[in-house]
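Appendix B. Extra example for self-study. Work through it before the problem class; the solution is given directly after the inputs so you can check yourself.
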Amino acid sequence: MKIQVCFFSVVRDIVGTDARQLSLPDGSTAAVVLETLGADHPRLLEWKHSIRFAVNQTYAPAETVLNEGDEVALIPPTSGG
Amino acid sequence: MVELVRTEIDILSAVSKVGDPSAGAIDVFIGTTRNTHKGRGVELLEYESYESMALKVMEKIVDEARRTWNLKGVAVVHRLGKVRVGEASVVIAVSAMHRAEAFEGCRFLIDQLKKEVPIWKKEYFTDGHVEWSGSDVAIG
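Solution. Structure tokens for the complete assembly:
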């Protein structure tokens, strides 16, 4: 299945782009997105414990199973206000 | 009302939107950009957001605040892009029947906004460094 991944802030600087399409096996979870990208961008894994996932613009646990066409975002610690 | 804006926040307009005949109090929080961070001089801040999600999360925390403190009107406006020191980066205005609910609801909204809303701040230091707030990663 194909999903769209969006990057922001420090995560975008590490990955070097603001969005990317990924092809993953059916049944993959949000955690797999981070593992897959971490293989290409090892510095991402330093953020593993502080990154939250959003699936279709809603926070979702790492074990959330993804579907074709989902928009996944890796959300580093926020700093608005 | 929740908004993300790229120009100076119109504070009075936000306040005027929450007025309600049944309200006895309006509380306003204005977050301003500060010229220091952990003792280092800051020249400029730049905010970015995952806008479609940020608006959804803002609506969600506004709904929760409305229900919990029986707020009559709520306005949350956050600035994006470059913001000079001393300017407002966020304005929250709430109205309620009594001041206790207004204060508490407003406090909840700014605390939740900082924790939950996908907005990030980049700090341009006077020494020339540029860093995402809360990260140790220098990017320029």
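Self-check: The domain at 2-132 of chain B is CATH 3.90.1170.40 (Aldehyde Oxidoreductase; domain 3). If your reasoning did not lead you there, revisit section 3.
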